[in-house]
Amino acid sequence: MSLFAGWLRVNHQPGSPVRVAHLSLDGNRARNTNTSALVIRSWMTVVEDILVSNAPVDGIRVSNVASDGKTMLTTSQVGVGKR
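RE: above sequence
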């Protein structure tokens, strides 16, 4: 399963748990706009020891909205229901 499956899969269920650790992420602000360096849409995900730099929007975003910008999770610790 792709690390990004929860974000890319456009449905109402979160992705599988993942652990993201011991990384440096460069958001490359000069070439990217309106994006985050790391987007999490998975239940029980662990993020530790991460250095984020040059992110155009958020360094790390915990989201209940899928990559289509409108499909929200219906079961989540992030949020339930309408925006």
